Amino acid sequence: IPGEDLPHVSHYYDDAHPYYRQRVVIVGGKNSAAEAALELFRAGAQVTMIHRRPALGESIKYWVKPDIENRIKQGSITARFETRIVRITPTHVEVEHHGTHDQIPAERVFLLTGYHPDVDLMRRAGVRCDEHTLALPLVEGAEPGAVRLRVRSTDLERALELLDRADPGRNIPT
Q: What is the pTM (predicted TM-score) of this model?
């Protein structure tokens, strides 16, 4: 998409609070997009979802789907279905819906169309993992079938910040 490399565009959603009173466009219509839209709305952002399909994805978590559908129905979150992104500019997103072009103002754009793990963050934290699945190797001496903990990259980033505050001399690989 032309403009997806602009500084206000991201493939990763992090936190809702910095976007209070900002116009945020979310591209996607499944779990990540729905959850981000709800969090951003609740934090005071003006949210518009853009999805190329005629409805939200059927695989959205059962406790999230009625919430996002109700926010769209009441108009708290704007949804543009059967709409595609033409390009992103520093001030707006140009979209096309059945041959008609429109511009949606946006201070922030999240392209949440599929999950891509932030492997670089894991490496910097010293975590060895498979680059495609994020599977962790078993800890030496652990029994097969041991439980592995999954955390969001933002949670890991916060944990690293806390560790650094507690032990400023800790060397985190970069």
A: 0.68
